[in-house]
Specification:
The chain is mainly alpha-helical. The chain is built from 21 helices and no strands. It is a multi-pass membrane protein.
Length: about 500
């Protein structure tokens, strides 16, 4: 492989000089505090996943096109996260490289959720009437939602890169740091989904109910007020623990990202040069990106339609028609809370599992488990469809319990998805001269391209087979099973236990 700009001997010497020694390692308790940012980010994501797909349909967006609203997430991830990662690698602020972007992202999240929560009120002030379709509210919602996805990408990428900075070349500590982040994402999920499943927030914040904002809308608005408090708290805990040095003061024994000394060809990769980086990726990195892409083709239909699936196909309700749909959405949020509990427990044992079985094997088995869960959801949908309960009748308890068990079990592969790919890409891109911010952006491209495909295709695909969410889940099951086989057969079975150049 031709390595750009920098010779092998220069790069190896530079890497050796920047490996953290036991004397200058950042304590794990400080890394733990930095990782707490994942809790605040995921709290907001959990609210999005549990409440926003039903909410956009209440605003009048048809189910077939609801997935297009989510298209900004992958598009912003494709454009924003690599760019922000590149900029944070080279940021010379006196506050450090990553922290300015984390703060800017947190402030943007606050602005975005205020717009989303008040979108119905904004639409009413601009002339929307009390009708099924609220075009001005939809415009305000979409603008706020897209800003929220940009802000989430602006925050999460630098935070992941900061963890990589603090752990250096130590693969074990890198896995631990990513497991911490995954654990905090689980905690954020638990709190977020618990918030989304509670229907009485409007009683605590009665001012949220207005002539334009119904009780369901007021619950969402109130939940986002809690999100604002949470993101500000975790941002403070995270950035106060980081203690970054300005880039200009980083010496030869500083963090694992050797910013200005890194290869100019790879580090100068601005947006229009980003794809040039892929020429220098090794075979193992390409396999990691392939497995990541297939994994997210599997995940995205579930994350997009999980609570909607519970409301439509298990409780047989429709948005704006009776209470069955909303009862299903709340039950789906409860299932996602159980999912997050399992996610957190799995994150605690992640390092031990990887040390014993190898990251590639653990990742592959978890993806096959994810595929089986999606097949089980298809079976439950078929059974529920052929059972006679309609209108105000509730589904049999056994159907609801089976659905909740599947939601909970899916926490295992989700914990792996949130942890292992980031640890593997971090330890395998360092010798290419990529800063950790840009490395996270490269991995994110493998995440967002499948999301664009699913966002564009899932609605029309579902309609092609008569509506519902089952067709998209079927595609997710096939993709998840395929990614599991590739991970087991092609990825390394074990990690090295000591820092070294590993490509």
């Amino acid at each position: 492989m031709t390595v750009p700009a920098e010779s092998h001997s220069q790069r190896a010497s530079r890497v050796r000089s920047n490996v953290r020694t036991p004397q200058n390692r950042v304590p794990l308790k400080r890394i733990f505090r930095v990782a707490s940012m994942g809790c605040g980010i995921q709290f907001g994501w959990a609210l999005q996943l549990s409440l926003l797909t039903p909410y956009v349909q209440e605003l009048g967006i048809p189910h077939a096109w609801a997935s297009l609203v989510w298209l900004c997430g992958p598009l912003s991830g494709f454009l924003v996260q690599p760019l922000v990662g590149h900029m944070s690698d080279r940021c010379t602020s006196r506050f450090g490289r990553r922290r300015p972007f984390i703060v800017a992202g947190a402030v943007s999240i606050v602005i975005a959720v205020l717009i989303i929560g008040h979108s119905a009120d904004i639409g009413g002030l601009l002339g929307d009437k009390s009708s099924e379709s609220k075009p001005r509210a939809i415009v305000a919602f979409v603008l706020g939602f897209w800003l929220l996805d940009v802000a989430n990408n602006m925050t999460q990428g630098p935070c992941r890169a900061l963890l990589a900075d603090l752990t250096g070349k130590d693969q074990r500590r890198t896995r631990i740091a990513n497991a911490y982040f995954s654990l905090f994402m689980a905690v954020g999920n638990i709190l977020g989904f618990a918030t989304g499943s509670y229907s009485g927030w409007f009683n605590i914040f009665p001012f949220t109910v207005t002539s334009f904002c119904s009780i369901n809308c007021a619950n969402l608005k109130s939940a986002f007020f809690l999100d604002i408090a949470f993101i500000l708290l975790t941002s403070y805990v995270s950035i106060s623990a980081a203690q970054e040095l300005p880039l200009s003061s980083i010496g030869s024994t500083s963090s694992a990202d050797e910013s200005l000394e890194q290869s100019h060809h790879s580090q100068e990769a601005f947006l229009w040069e980003l794809f040039d980086i892929f020429r220098y990726l090794t075979g193992t990195i390409w396999i990691i990106l392939t497995v990541t892409a297939l994994t997210w083709i599997g995940w995205f239909p579930f994350l997009l339609f999980d609570t909607d699936w519970m409301g439509r196909e298990i409780y047989k309700g429709k948005p704006n028609e009776g209470q069955n749909y909303h009862m299903g959405v709340r039950m789906g949020s409860f299932g996602l809370m159980l999912n997050s509990v399992v996610l957190g427990l799995t994150s605690i044992v992640m390092e031990r599992l990887c040390r014993k079985w190898g990251g590639g094997f653990v990742w592959g088995v978890s993806n096959i488990l994810m595929s089986f869960c999606f097949v089980a959801m298809l079976i439950i949908s078929f059974v529920a469809k052929n059972m006679e309960y309609f209108g105000n009748d509730l589904p049999p308890g056994i159907i609801v319990i089976a659905s909740l068990i599947i939601f909970a079990v899916l926490g295992v592969p989700l914990a792996v998805t949130y942890s292992i790919p980031y640890a593997m890409i971090t330890t395998r891109t360092e010798s290419l001269g990529l800063g950790q911010g840009l490395s996270m952006g490269v991995l994110n491209i493998a995440i967002v391209i499948p999301q664009v495909i699913v966002s564009l295709g899932s609605g029309p695909w579902d309609q092609l087979f008569g509506g519902g969410n089952s067709p998209a889940f079927a595609v997710g099951a096939v993709a998840a099973f395929s990614s599991g086989l590739v991970a087991i057969l092609a990825l390394p079975r074990s990690y090295a236990n000591k820092p070294r150049i590993h490509v």
